[in-house]
Design a protein that fits this description.
The protein has about 700 residues and is of the alpha+beta class. The chain is built from 25 helices and 14 strands. The structure holds adenosine-5'-triphosphate (ATP). It is found in: Cell membrane.
Length: about 700
């Protein structure tokens, strides 16, 4: 019998497969474990130095939650008679609580993503701050789509009203100086005593509230942000410059900048030859590029002798080899870096600036949209009027920016710039509330070209507009920004969004508290306002879609803060830093001292150079007559030394390079007389006849002899 041999089963492939699966699984597990470990390591490293008292893990400062009913009855049903102000994000009412306590209740506009963010921000940041220098947040109310914030009531309302209303006489010099010091202290508290530091982001007169004794407190933290991270302490600008900054910061800049404006010191003559120091040259070149009398500075610099970092500066004047003087002429820089200086510069007639040749105008227009801040402070390419018109034109021309909702009907009144008129009737003054301007205003014959150019543009969404206008900046900074964006999106918990999650706002619902035709003649143009009815989220952009970036970049770049108060570096992709507050503080100081708004559009003809407060102040500084800026209503009843100090301090704060602006601690010391005001650059200095000019004059003279 033959025994059948069993067909041998082949267990090998099965076990092989099992083995393979186990191996793959095991390696995957190990890989994931390694990845997780690395991720954890990275996460803890990144968060090591973070202190964040406001994030969701930290219990909020106990804020009282009011019911809507309670606040409604406190404000007599939000009646007009209790309304005390209207801002970009809502209406403020005066209320009396059941216990008799006076409060200010801000009823926020709803349906706007921006408002919600600001609400969250306000609660998170202001709710965590307790200081006599900052207005107290007493509570909030969230009911369905209604959001209200309750503050301590400030009987003397805002500085804006005190300075510009009929009762402005209450703001004598002593009070003005005290307010300046109070605001400086408040900023010092935010920047230095808070952990993490708080950057206010919207320092302006309407956000400075006055108590019964006219003591000032900072309010409105809707646009504030926390400085969470060391990395966020450096904006891209600084990072790129970091190396050179270190070098030239160690220099005695005061000596090298030469100009003294305190009035007691002797200014270094403009033509004084300087030691060749690349770093200083570089800093000065930047100063020069932003100077209204920039061409004078080129006498002392070697424009092409900057260190290589300079090339990265997107804001650096495109015309490296040439710069423009205030008349639109080009000032060429001669080979050895010495520019010819036109004596006439020291007596610029801005009316003539309007008569730019066609070529110049076209070039200027091109340049205009790109870096409007350079122009806003009278950088020399166009005058204030052009700036005002161009800027307003770009804002109000419906075909240019259809997305920018113009909420108000424009006044049919033809408006011209004038500041020479006394301010005895402050109500005559119209802030450049852009909504109030009529496109027709721009259709003057002489400005036709500008207007056509502005208005004939294809309608663009603001995002596109921004991208186009800042293409250069974008290309240079996008790499860095993208990296940071993804970094932030993934890792950073932005504290002011936590509450939003908890409250689960219903964004689509609207409530009808918006006053479509509401008009506040005292209001400043806040970018918030322009945004509030817009779909911020769409502008929040696919480009910068992260929480942080939708706040800090998309809604910002050139759009964040309040016109004329926002720092120039914020026009790019810079982060909101302390020095941005310092810049705004500088503008605020000038506004307080002069009793003028930073940008005036009046109904009567006036000297154009006064239209832009910052620009005018720089001109006065250059002419050595800063006290002309002081509010005429004060007559001679003010402390000249203090006024001069304040104006010069403001100029120091208004320097283009954030790094050159003083720190808030120094500002407080300077105001308290504990520290000398550092020297200011040439552009802010009294301008003696230039040596070059004098020399050549002398030469001519000797030839004549
Ligand atoms: N706590 C308060 N006490 C008294 N008045 C207040 C108080 N808070 C605000 N106000 C008044 O309400 C006005 C509007 O304030 P709000 O903060 O809403 O807007 P804003 O700062 O003028 O503008 P934006 O919100 O666009 O920056 C202020 O100018 C001020 O007169």
């Amino acid at each position: 019998m033959t025994s059948r041999q069993p067909i041998p089963s082949n267990p090998k492939p099965m076990s092989g497969i099992i083995f393979l699966i186990i191996t793959v699984l095991a390696s995957l597990i190990i890989l994931f474990a390694i990845l997780y470990f690395l991720y954890y390591l990275w996460y803890s490293l990144v968060h090591r130095s973070r202190t964040n008292p406001y994030d969701s893990s930290t219990p909020l400062v106990k804020l009282h939650r009011f019911s809507y009913k309670e606040l409604k009855s406190a404000t007599e049903g939000f009646s007009d008679s209790t309304s005390i102000g209207k801002g970009g994000s809502g209406i403020v009412y005066k209320g009396i609580l059941k216990d008799g306590k006076l409060v200010a209740v801000k009823l926020l506009d709803s349906g706007s993503f921006q408002s919600e963010r600001e609400f969250q921000n306000e609660l998170q940041i202001l709710g965590g701050i307790k200081s006599p220098l900052v207005v107290s947040l007493l509570g909030y109310c969230v009911e369905r789509n209604k959001r209200l914030v309750v503050y301590e009531y400030m009987p003397n309302r805002s500085l804006q009203e005190s300075l510009f209303s009929e009762s402005s006489l209450c703001m004598n010099w002593g009070r003005r100086f005290d307010v300046i010091l109070d605001v400086a202290r408040a900023l010092a508290f935010l920047h230095l005593d808070c952990d993490p530091p708080v950057i206010h982001g919207d320092v302006k007169p309407s956000n400075v509230l006055l108590d019964s004794e006219y003591k000032a407190k900072l309010s409105d933290f809707g646009l504030s942000r926390l400085k969470l991270e060391e990395e966020f302490g450096v904006d891209m600008f600084s990072q790129e410059l970091g190396k050179s900054q270190e070098l030239w910061k160690s220099q005695d800049l005061s000596g090298n900048f030469g100009g003294m404006t305190t009035g007691t010191e002797t200014p270094t003559p403009i033509g004084t030859p300087m030691e060749s120091q690349d770093e200083v040259d570089f800093a000065m070149a930047l100063q020069a590029s932003s100077s209204s009398k920039g061409s004078t500075m080129f006498q002392n610099i070697r424009p092409f002798g900057f260190n290589s970092v300079t090339q990265n500066l997107s804001f650096f004047n495109e015309n490296d080899a040439t710069t423009r003087n205030a008349k639109g002429k080009e000032v060429s820089i001669v080979e050895n870096g010495v520019a010819s200086y036109d004596e006439e510069l020291s007596s610029v007639d801005h009316r003539k600036e309007l008569d730019l040749g066609g070529g110049d105008k076209a070039r200027n227009i091109k340049q205009w949209g790109k870096d409007w801040w350079w122009k806003q402070d009278g950088s020399g390419e166009l005058c204030s009027k052009d700036y005002v018109k161009e800027w307003i034109g770009s804002q109000i021309c419906p075909s240019t920016n259809p997305e920018w909702d113009l909420e108000k009907k424009c006044s049919p009144q033809k408006t011209s710039l004038d500041i020479s008129a006394p301010l005895s009737k402050p109500e005559e003054v119209q802030e450049t509330t852009l909504q109030e301007q009529e496109p027709e205003t721009l259709k003057k014959e002489s400005d036709k070209e500008i207007t056509e150019k502005t208005c004939n543009k294809k309608p663009r969404k603001m995002k596109e507009w921004w991208k186009e206008e800042h293409l250069d900046e974008l290309s240079k900074k996008s790499k860095k920004a993208k990296r940071l964006e993804s970094f932030c999106k993934k890792r950073f918990k932005i504290p002011h969004f936590d509450i939003g999650k908890r409250f689960q706002f219903k964004r689509k619902r609207k409530f009808g508290m918006q006053d479509e035709n509401g008009d506040d003649p005292d209001a400043e143009f806040s970018f918030r306002k322009g945004w509030k009815r817009k779909h911020t989220r769409s502008m929040g952009s696919d480009m910068w879609s992260g929480d942080l970036f939708s706040r800090e970049l998309s809604s910002t770049t050139s759009m964040r803060g309040t016109l004329c108060y926002v720092a120039p570096e914020y026009g790019g992709c810079g982060y909101l830093m302390e020095k941005a507050d310092i810049y705004s503080f500088g503008v605020l100081v000038l506004v307080i001292v002069s009793g003028r708004r930073p940008l005036h559009v009046l109904n009567s003809p006036m000297k154009l150079e006064k239209a832009n407060l910052v620009s005018w102040c720089k001109q006065l500084a250059h002419a050595g007559n800063v006290l002309e800026l002081v509010d005429e209503r004060l007559k001679d009843d003010y402390n000249k030394e203090q006024a001069s100090l304040c104006i010069n301090l403001a100029l120091a704060c208004l320097q283009k390079m954030p790094e050159l602006r003083p720190d808030i601690s120094d500002i407080v010391k300077i105001l308290k007389g504990e520290m000398e005001l550092p020297s200011l650059p040439f552009e802010f200095s009294p301008s003696p006849p230039s040596r070059t000019f004098s020399r050549s004059k002398r030469r001519h003279k000797s030839y004549a002899e």
